[in-house]
Amino acid sequence: MLLRARTILPLNTPAVEDGAVRVEGTRIMEVGKRADLAAHSGEEIIELGESVLLPGLINAHCHLEYSTLRHAIAPPNSFTEWVQRINSIKRQLGPEDILTAISRGFAEAQRYGTTSICSMVAFPDLLPQLPSPELRTWWFYEMIDVRHRVTSEEVVAGALTFFNQQKDPLTQFGLNPHAPYTASLLLYRLAHACASQNGMLLTSHVAESIEETEMFAGACGALHDFLEGLGRPMHDCGLDTPFGWLWRNSAVGPDWILAHLNDLHPSDFSLLETLGKERLPHVVHCPASHAYFRHPPFAFTKLSGLGLNICVGTDSLASADSLSLLSELRMLQTNEPGLSPEDLLATVTLAPARALRQEGQLGCVSPGALADLIAIPLDGCAEKNAQQAAEACVGYKGWIPWMMVNGKIIVT
Question: What is the set of domains in the chain, with CATH numbers?
């Protein structure tokens, strides 16, 4: 199959004007000028016209199970208030509600150009009831042990039993010790050992709110009091920041994908400075959710300057208006006007591909990469150069009219 477009935006190499991409099976074989890539005998040719052909977008942090909760919770006065409200809602959801939410979330993410998605899953036993996903999906099993009458070992054993039963070419699995306030150090360590043995990825919510920091650093605050009231052991409070507590106790480490890091203290930055680039975790920033909770400004420039790999995700529709990664990029652009359009697009392509250990496979348009691609209309911008084409992609607000995942066209 030969794909032709006004501009090819590989993101890891310079743009190609009036370009073409050859796809064979699930892989990209060639990328170049239209004039240099002649069609083979009998080869299907797809003319994408005045469009930018670029890598499919990768959502590095999402909760598809909450996709029916858009505007269900008004912006709360505190993060703890939101936790209480979402827990109350979850108790009222049945299996059909969860399956409907996941299906709707997939559909919305796809319309906005997402070809790979990382979704946290609290009800993994329902996944076999879903049809095989059209999007490349990483399910991260949400692991909590501080409020359940089960041991950390049982939580890990249950995850492994479930994952070993699942077989789908577009589906992979990881582990998500939920957060330091809901998962014990033992659970973090067991998850790490389990993931290392089975080649799985690891993610966690860390330093998401000021209240989380108050709980760990000061043994006080609304979140501390709420969890203490639920019977959570509080012996780990009053000792360190959330990130510092996990890192210094070897509960998280390099290659972990840490969602949020919204409330970092000077001691956290000092710790990160001592690690060296090869030992740094990956970070996922969710601009819309960040704004919804009115968190302090995200330290994008400082974290990036330290060498952290920063990805962008949508979080869930319980704290964001849409599952559009391009909308998230526009919010990030408002907060970080120094980022170029290519820099912005990298946070939903090259950066998450690196976090998912898929460098050269996803997030780029290169020979040998998996054929996960989208086309964004230029809408009369034929005279635009490559940088302006990237800017047009970030600014695009409609549904994506053409998409390919694993060599298969799924939107036309």
Answer: 2-56+364-411 (2.30.40.10), 57-355 (3.20.20.140)
